[in-house]
Structure prediction request, 198 residues.
Amino acid sequence: METLPLNTIHVQNLLVIINRLHMLLHSTALAFLFYYRLCFLFQPSETIESHSLPWLLVFASEIILSFIWILDQAYRWHPVLRSIFQERLLEDHKLPSIDVFICTADPTKEPTLDVMNTVLSAMALDYPPQKLHMYVSDEGGSPLTLHGVREASKFATSSVYMEDKQKIKEKYEAFKEEIKTFRKDRTFSRDHPSVNEV
Prediction:
């Protein structure tokens, strides 16, 4: 039994021509620039000595920027448009399980609120909840991260059924304040036993 495709791909021919012409012109300009810079290096030594260091630094930066530009052209070489057929997507009970891993190490370098926003975004995925598994790995084992995950879980379960956006915003502000006050009220040591919680 042959299944229908979930999407179709359309090549944007006009954009392909425009992008490739631009790449050709830009590459030609870069070739002339490199030729000019290399010719300067092979001039008599009395003209090179006074300007050699700035000239070499500029040349090195041009090489680096040109390399970055070449890497940037990969997706412009063959631009496509995808048309998605949502009616052909799998039904919820046929979808595979997804594991989402969120790693953090130090709440001072990676603020707990930012990590919890990532957790909340992952929890808000449009995916069957019984097939979405979330794991937060805190290499530093900070109690602040553990508290943040608990609060994020409370916030997510309480605001799922809310229709009013204003109430969700109020609950989110309370969630942010809870994490900030937890951090202010306690001093955290790096020497503490590890905590595992399911």
Remarks:
- Residues 13-41 form the longest helix (29 residues).
- The mean pLDDT is 83.
- The beta strands are 7-11, 80-84, 98-104, 132-138.
